[in-house]
Amino acid sequence: MQRIGLVLVVMTLMGCGDYRYLPTTIKPTYFTGKGDFEFSLNAASLGEIHGAYALTDNIAISATTSRYRLPADTFKTFDSAFNVTSTQTKKESYRDNEIALGYFTHFQDGSTFEVYAGYGISKSKINNQFSDFLNPSNNFSNELNNRNYSRIYFQPAYGKMSNVIDYGFANRFSFIYYPGNHRDFISESTIFTRFGYKYVKVMFQFGFTISNENNTYDYFPFTAGVGLYFQLNSLRKL
């Protein structure tokens, strides 16, 4: 899953345009009643650890922590004898944490409609270090945090779970707040499915992003994610 995350990070950061936002997977729960629980390991642009729990027959809480560290990128210069004269190293790491409160209602046909409202905060750390072995006075190290942002989102979803397959559709509407009083709005639509048996399932999702034309930054038009889910809910307890 880390390789998938790396591919999506590279696609997002290296494409044309000014990309700051790193999407996380959209995680509808499709809970059926009080005591339902899920835990998952997911990968999209970041590696994620997620958990959710139904506090009542209609109210649930969800939390996710996400991390990614790109391999250090080092550029070396050499003299005529192929001795290293200087090195320049760039290290990048990203993290995102979110928490959400949701309302869900379970229907007699086995389907669930839910709405989550959540808050997330994303931070980056980009460290540049230059070492000049011929003239150490040129050495420097600096740290950039130009990809920090927070977000408030609203996420309705409809779907159905069973012993073998869960499926549904979700949409995440996000207000993203960047430093400098920049606020962007995006809509992320996702088709969501999980395959497995009872307690353990593999998750796949694919979606697309609609970005407000007045947004400050660019957003990758397509998203994808995979995950491994462990589930306990009233359907499994019967």
Helix content: under 10%
The oligomeric state is single chain
Global outline: elongated
| Uncertain stretches | 1-8, 10-14
* Beginning-to-end CA distance, first to last residue: 33 Å
Q: What is the element string, with H for helices and E for strands?
A: HEEEEEEEEEEEH
- Total helical elements: 2
Percentage beta strand: over 45%
Please tell me the overall pLDDT. 87
Rg for CA atoms: 21 Å
Number of DSSP strand runs: 11
**Which class do the helix and strand fractions yield?**
mainly beta
Strand order of the largest sheet: 1-2-3-4-5-7-8-9-10-11
The main pleated sheet reads as:
10 strands, antiparallel, barrel
Question: What would you note in describing this structure?
Answer:
The chain is mainly beta and 238 residues long. 7% of the residues lie in helices and 63% in strands. The chain is built from 2 helices and 11 strands. Strands 1-2-3-4-5-7-8-9-10-11 form a 10-stranded antiparallel beta barrel. Strand 7 (149-160) and strand 8 form a beta hairpin. The longest helix is centred in the first third of the chain and has 13 residues, at 2-14. It is elongated, with a radius of gyration of 21 Å. The model is unreliable at 1-8 and 10-14 (pLDDT under 50).
